[in-house]
Amino acid sequence: MRTKLLILALSALALSGCAKRTVPPGDVGICFHVQPQKDGSLKYNKLPSAQPDMEHCAAALESMRVRFLRLGGSNREIYGAYQGNFIFIQKEGIFTAPSLEAHRYLALVRTGDGRLAVPGAMPMEAPAPEGQ
Length: 132
Hints:
Elements: H1 2-17, E1 31-36, E2 42-46, H2 54-70, E3 78-82, E4 85-90, E5 93-97, E6 105-110, E7 116-117
Antiparallel strand pairs: 1-2, 1-3, 3-4, 4-5, 5-6, 6-7
């Protein structure tokens, strides 16, 4: 009985590894805004200028998001792609993942004034000394 359960568990694990993954283009230096379509496909809109790294691509996407909001848009969260990774612009910060189905990892955090920074780069405020 144990052997059958072990075989069943290993088979399920092997099949989950074969699940289809949605991966973005891997074009070097090209930053894309990703727009879901009604049919479930994705449209990759190339941003006008090349970006040297993922942080600059994320900043360009964030700038685009802010401009859309100022023009009356309502989309507070957008996503893009850079060199084979998705970039997710969210209120908590910028996340990245190698596919839409993969776990998202924190790449940039929002500072108190809304700017983006590498996690751990911003100094923490020191607690006030006791008695003050």
